[in-house]
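Reading a protein record of the kind used here takes only a little practice. An example makes this concrete, so a full record is given next.
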Amino acid sequence: RHVQRIFCDVIYEDIDKEPVRLSTPLQFMTVDISAAGIGIVCDHEIETGRILGIRITLDRIPYEIKCRVIYCIPLDGKFRAGLKIAEMDRQFMQHIKIFVARTLLTSEYASGE
């Protein structure tokens, strides 16, 4: 479990199309993160299949990645969405694996398992 504010500046019609820049970035809170995707909570519904340009920071290193919205469901007056990482650079891929492993080890150690 990892909570962090992330931002979306651009939306893509398709992974290879030109992005549509948003006048006001969307803000989301992560609730879960893995090497395959990110779970978020947001104030507004996001269209399934949409590709978002996400700005995320891991260990104070900023990254820009593309994520596809897999689902978006209502949850307690907000929306819970699942994002599949669709495009990332090699450095992010290596970093996210280490980040997730460290987060899991830290939470297991803290819980006494």
The mean pLDDT is 91. The radius of gyration is 14 Å.
